[in-house]
From TrEMBL:
Coiled coil: none annotated. It comes from Triticum aestivum (Wheat). Residues 582-591 have a biased composition (Basic and acidic residues). Gene3D superfamilies: Ribonuclease Inhibitor. PANTHER family: F-BOX_LRR-REPEAT PROTEIN 10, PARTNER OF PAIRED, ISOFORM B-RELATED. Residues 581-616 are annotated as: Disordered. This is F-box/LRR-repeat protein 15-like leucin rich repeat domain-containing protein.
């Protein structure tokens, strides 16, 4: 019996539309469980999901979308009137004052904005008037763009109007708030304020604030006076002098002044940093005595960061370690007198350090790191520019079973160190080898020989002169699921590396599917031919791209137009945001394609022909 003619077979029925297959209430319930990013991706599938997603946006309690950079025109329809909205987190790099009314919403309990350099101090005034119940406020680079206004009156309005603040982080230049009343205005700050982080604050303003706080404590019992920061548990202060502070102790932080920062011993997190952004300088009037006295009231500290304390020696740093049994995070920057002795008897303590940063501690050697490695719970270790460290230090670290991030920039390690890591047990997710000039191409197969090949997501191979395209070929063949790859200032890296990365597949997914950041700034072999490999659909997840500014500007601008969500840097600036360990949650959206967001946000939703026919 002959087979039936396929032409005579009736055509299969089109699949039912989404709204016919599932009640709208069920779809809305499902969508309400998604994060914002997944919700927007779902809305690009069909009209039904788009309608349900739009409805869900009107009752979401939290809107967190800090992985994408949106303009006001794109953001406004995503933030409809929503009385239930309590938490808002965004990257505001493309927002300006036109978005202030969209950001300052009644009922907000948390507002976190990164890169808000295009927004003026008006935001602080609007928050004071609109958000009296605000609990958490974190702003980065507010009003940094030239010509934008921000004054002391904006800060005063914020402190007066937002009386429920518990966490205040203003990573900005506090010299814009310079006013005779600056130190007194903090008396109106929320009594429940437990975390305070200030950006660059001139030391004179800080000393004046400390003096007023001390005076208020001394007057209690005699005259009714406001108490400054009674609930404070986290304090972060940074100054960045443009000239060497005067030798007079009245104009700089001293041993005595240091004792006034934590007089009641309530602080759990303390960060005191003298930045060397403009000039090499330090806290010259603070020595071991000041640290020893401060450590007597620091038994509650869980994290401490000290930067620029050039006169503090092992004695002072050991006092901190031995006085803080609950210390988990330790950071020392420019510890010019810190040596291996700091960790000599760390085994005898009850410390359980998880995060350690010892940048520019040039006297630290392999012996000290071997002692430090007895902390088997180490999760993050930063040893940038510890120029006396070599392969034996890495050998000790390779046995740490929880080490997720390791920074070895500027050390004198060789390929042997990479062999230790490749054969070790560290579940490394982030590794930085910038400026390790003794490394060669052979270090890559040694590093990827073991389990690191599966866990590594961020890799920095910048400023390694002998690195060539062959090393990148090894990474591609190993199919390491990198999301960040930095190769800046490598003279032998060229177009072949770009082509190989664009063709890379991971678990059979689309080409270049895992890379979100690629830094090729000042790579000597990159030419205009590489530009074609950045066109869609290649590198579908790429959000940060660094290139040399001398490339053809017309082609660069054309790339920006075709990929509006790609942040392109041609001036040598660092890309992306600092690594944040999320304990294995790197691939939260393993199967999505980020570019699917763009058609819905820019041109409307893509709808298949079959669904269109069915709905009609």
């Amino acid at each position: 019996m002959s087979a039936p003619d396929p032409i005579d077979d009736p055509a299969p029925d089109p699949p039912p539309a989404m709204d016919a297959a599932l009640p709208a209430a069920v779809v809305a319930t499902i969508l309400s469980r998604l994060d914002v990013r997944s919700l927007l991706l779902a809305s690009a599938v069909c009209r039904c999901l788009r309608s349900c997603a739009s409805h869900a946006l009107s009752f979401l309690p939290a809107f967190h979308l800090d992985e994408e950079v949106l303009t006001h025109d794109l953001l406004r329809p995503l933030l409809p009137r929503n009385p239930a909205l309590r938490s808002l987190r965004l990257d505001a790099a493309r927002l300006d004052d036109a978005a202030v009314d969209c950001l300052a919403r009644p009922g907000l309990h948390e507002l976190t904005l990164r890169n808000c350099n295009g927004i003026s101090g008006r935001l602080l005034r609007e928050l004071s008037a609109t958000c009296p119940d605000l609990r958490v406020l974190s702003l980065n680079s507010l009003a940094d763009r030239r010509g934008l206004a921000m004054a002391f009156s904006d800060l005063k309005a914020l402190l007066d109007g937002c009386s429920s603040l518990e966490t205040l982080s203003l990573a900005l230049d506090f010299s814009k708030f310079d006013d005779p009343s600056f130190s007194h205005v903090w008396s109106s700050a929320s009594q429940g304020l437990s975390s305070l982080e200030m950006g660059f604050i001139p030391l004179q303003m800080l000393l004046a604030l400390l003096a007023v706080a001390i005076e208020s404590r001394q007057r209690i019992g005699y005259v009714k006076a406001p108490v400054f920061f009674p609930s404070l548990q986290k304090l972060r202060l940074t100054d960045s002098p443009i000239m060497e502070p005067e030798s007079a102790t009245a104009t700089d932080l001293t041993d005595a002044g240091l004792q006034q920062i934590n007089p009641k011993g309530k602080l759990k997190h303390l960060s005191l940093i003298r930045s060397q952004e403009f000039i090499y300088t330090s806290f010259r009037h603070v020595n071991d005595l000041g640290i020893l006295l401060m450590s007597e009231k620091c038994s509650n500290l869980e994290s401490i960061c000290l930067g620029g304390f050039s006169r503090v020696t092992d004695t002072g740093f050991r006092a901190i370690i031995h006085s803080c049994p609950g210390l988990h995070k330790l950071k020392v920057t420019n510890g010019s007198h810190l040596t291996d002795l700091v960790f000599h008897d760390i085994v005898a303590t009850s410390l359980c350090l998880t995060h350690v940063s010892l940048r520019w501690c040039t006297l630290l050697t392999d012996v000290g790191i071997e002692r430090l490695s007895f902390n088997k719970d180490l999760n993050v270790l930063d040893l940038k520019d510890c120029k006396s460290l070599g392969d034996e230090a890495v050998r000790a670290l390779s046995c740490l079973p929880r080490l997720r991030k390791l920074v070895l920039d500027g050390t004198v390690i060789t390929n042997q160190a990479m062999e230790y890591l490749g054969a070790g047990v560290c579940p490394l997710a982030s590794l930085s080898l910038r400026g390790c000039y003794k490394l060669t191409n052979d270090c890559i197969p040694l590093l990827l020989a073991g389990s690191v090949k599966e866990s590594l997501h961020a890799l920095d191979l910048s400023r390694i002169p002998s690195l060539t395209d062959d090393a990148i070929m090894v990474i591609v063949r190993a199919r390491t699921p990198l999301t960040e790859l930095r190769l800046r200032e490598n003279p032998e890296i060229g177009d072949a590396s770009v082509k190989a990365l664009a063709s890379m597949q991971f678990e059979g997914v689309t080409c270049g599917s895992t890379l979100q950041l690629l830094d090729l700034y000042d790579c000597g072999g990159i030419t205009l031919l590489a530009m074609k490999w950045f066109k869609k659909p290649l590198f579908p997840r790429l959000r940060w791209l660094g290139l040399k500014g001398s490339l053809n500007r017309i082609m660069v601008d054309a790339l920006v137009l075709t990929r509006p969500f790609l942040r392109l840097a041609c001036g040598g600036e660092e890309l992306g945001t600092p690594y944040r360990d999320t304990s294995g949650e790197w691939c939260r959206h393993e199967d999505d394609d980020s570019e699917d967001l763009e058609p819905w946000q820019l041109d409307g939703e893509p709808v298949s022909d079959a669904e269109t026919t069915n709905e009609e």
